[in-house]
Design a protein that fits this description.
Blueprint lengths: L8 E2 L4 E12 L8 H9 L7 E2 L19 E7 L2 E7 L3 E7 L4 H17 L3 E15 L24 E8 L2 E15 L2 E14 L8 H18 L3 H6 L2 E2 L6
Length: 246
């Protein structure tokens, strides 16, 4: 995968959402009842209100099973994007609903996670994951570099689903592809194809190397994504290859 060409940007990008999630263990399990207020005091300029999610595990009798289910959420509107922050007893994630580029997303994530780390509540980071969901209005299967052949079957039909997992750059990459997806955005209905790439860190993650890991995960995810698409299809998205990458 080292020879995969990655453009600097796409004029017509396919990203519908991007999610950065961290799972952790608390030094004091009881601090899950106070960390929302502590974090809110630091970020209320961007995230002025929090509301419970539909499943609020912090008030459940059997709480341990819900450690990785967010209990609260807040939204920060920025230009045409909405950044959604979710927090639970052992998880924090930020989602970009809409996408204006990695720089904007990374700045928002940096703001959130730096403030969270400053609380000094965690004893261990158990997992970080970076996930991109890409939507295409057309059937994406014919435009993939993946080859599937059969004398009797066609894999270009409208009901094909593919999934695989592999390790690249020490990260576990989970890929799901479907060419028959129903997507609803702002009460509008879309039918098309989906490429879902979830890149997860398998190495030790600390607060000191967290952002270094995130940047490497992003670089890995880009290579994985563009390795899946044929060059002529990428060209229809009007890529900027840059002077040294053309």
């Amino acid at each position: 995968m080292k020879d995969v060409k990655v453009p600097l940007s796409l004029k017509y990008h396919s990203i519908k959402s991007c999610v950065l999630e961290m799972r952790f263990k608390l030094k004091d399990p009881n601090s899950k009842h106070t960390m929302l207020g502590l974090l809110f005091n630091k970020i209320q300029d961007r995230f002025p209100t929090f509301e419970p999610t539909s499943i609020n595990p912090l008030f459940s009798a059997n709480e341990q099973q819900f450690d990785h289910i967010p209990a609260f959420r807040s939204t920060h509107k920025k230009d045409s994007n909405a950044y959604i922050l979710q927090l639970g007893a052992g998880v924090i994630n930020i989602t970009s609903d809409g996408y204006s580029g990695w720089s904007d997303f990374y700045e928002e994530a940096n703001y959130i996670f730096n403030h969270f780390f400053s609380l000094n509540l965690t004893t261990e980071i158990t997992r970080i994951g970076l996930r991109y969901v890409n939507f295409f209005s057309e059937n994406i299967i014919p435009h993939l570099t993946i080859e599937m052949k059969s004398h009797h079957l066609s894999f270009d039909n409208q009901n094909t689903e593919l999934s695989t997992s592999f390790i690249h750059n020490s990260f576990n990459n989970n890929i799901k592809i479907s060419n028959n997806i129903n997507l609803r955005v702002d009460e509008k209905h879309f039918v098309g194809s989906l490429i879902d790439v979830d890149t997860i860190s398998n190495d030790e993650v600390t607060t000191k190397n967290f952002f270094e890991k995130v940047i490497k995960m992003h670089d890995t995810e880009k290579k994985v994504f563009f390795s899946l698409l044929k060059h002529d299809f990428i060209e229809t998205l009007e890529p900027d290859w840059g002077i040294n990458n053309a």
